[in-house]
Serpin domain-containing protein (Callithrix jacchus), 415 residues
Amino acid sequence: MQLFLFLCLVLLSPPGASLYRHHSREVKNRVKDLHVGDMVAPSSRKDFTFDLYRALAATAPSQNVVFSPVSVSMSLAMLSLGAGSSTKTQILEGLGLNLQEGSEEELHRGFQQLLQELNQPRDGFQLSLGNALFTDPVMDVRDTFLSAMKTMYLSDTFPTNFRDSVGALKQINDYVAKQTKGKIVDLLKNLDSNAVMVMVNYIFFKAKWKTPFDPRDTFESRFYFSKRKWVKVLMMSLEDLATPYLRDKELSCTVLELRYTGNASALFILPDRDKMEEVEAMLLPETLKRWRDSMKIRWIDELYLPKFSISGDYNVEHLLPQLGINEVFTSKADLSGITGARNLQVSQVVHKAVLDVSEEGTEASAATGVQITLLSAKMGPKTIVRFNMPFLVIVARTDTPSILFMSKVTNPKQA
């Protein structure tokens, strides 16, 4: 038999001057830090979110990048519930977790708290996050695993006849499409003939700009890849905007925050020409903190931002070994926490994400799939900001340190 585990996640919402809001208790901060990849890294490990970004960007330097750090990290955390021995250790350390007493429990509790908080009713924007298990009645899943998924990850369970692969595939894909408002369709292209379980984790985000762009002011303009290479894009524009702003002379980049209605914002990072690699190399939690602490409300006379819709589709299993997660893909994998037997290994980890930025606001979703198989005021000079060359975007909530989406836009017209 072959076990097929699928973890799907869809989310979005960025940081800036209010990128991370300080909480009154240090413990609460530490718990929340765990589930965004902003974890204290063991030994030479730095940060899961930015290490994964660099790995994704390195696979295709001239291509757009968009992914959900929360999606991938939560998927791996759920996978760790079924892992044992050194397989579990590699997953948790790969996430940047210091394996001290109580830290693993704190990790899962942090995700549990995130799920509860993100699903609270709110004004201003839409944000939903949840999990589901699709299990074949013929599979004897351990009660401890099911209980942990339900308690820690608030997972629903749906009986699924995997012997009817067409029906099972439709059941799972319809569920994902419904939960992501149609943003993620046909998440699974096929099911293995011996699949017995699919784990789905979804997240969806949609928000309007606090200060929207007027579509009548959108015009065609050049977006430069280099001094001589460019493409025509639809460029949105705003005038006379007061917003958090920073000119980082040390890293040769401009940082600007645009806020959504509600407690979410988007942080746009514009490196100077030929400085993208230097900025990418310094993407660290401490860099974001320095930006957050240094940003000031600045009057922007003119702001130009391309209208874009980009997507990413990645086979993450080729990248995770670079982050220290290797054993789970080999015959040494210990996933006995799922069924009680050590006869499973991960064969594929797929991540998909979509990010749409328009005059009205932002809409985004993402999904992560893990397939498990049997072994076998105007002052100073005028300020004009033009995002007319490659730039970065970080979407997060402003009341938690959760980085929901991260993106590099190298070509706004690239689907």
Q: What stands out?
A: Confidence is low (pLDDT under 50) at residues 1-45.
